[in-house]
Amino acid sequence: MGKKILSKLDGILNFIIGALIFVMTIFLLWVLLLGVSLNNVEAAPQPPTKPDVTLTPGVVDPNATVGKVCTPNYTTTVRNVPNSLKKKVFAEYNIDPKSDKFEIDHLISLELGGSNDIKNLWPQSYTTIPYNAHSKDALENKLHRMICEKKITMTEAQNEIVTDWITAYQKYVK
Q: What does R_g of the chain's alpha carbons equal in angstroms?
């Protein structure tokens, strides 16, 4: 009788070990497949913090002068970016024009003598951290004051923005 019990226990033990091996194999396969599928998932692209220089190299308004840009409300007299042009800019950057996370921004702002030309426009994010449309606006305001106070030339300010607006922000605003 002892042999019968041992034989039954041995059979039960073999069954349990086999079931555990099966469950562990399934679990490991699941983990491997999950890992492969997670590696194939691309992260959502981050909005650009800088414009694509091939699309937006920056364009100055040849009629802008220091005297004009330093005149109060100057930008209201020259701002002219129709919705049709804004849609083209969004399309160039493959960004949904209905997104509320962007503004169509002038790389060289109007207050620094920039143009409304499409090569001076780009969709700038409100949400990128720490550099976004709001921080670029602060830089533009600072450079505008410096131009009007004759602490920097308009050309120098334009070049600072075109070369790397984030570096300019760190230099003049931070």
A: 30
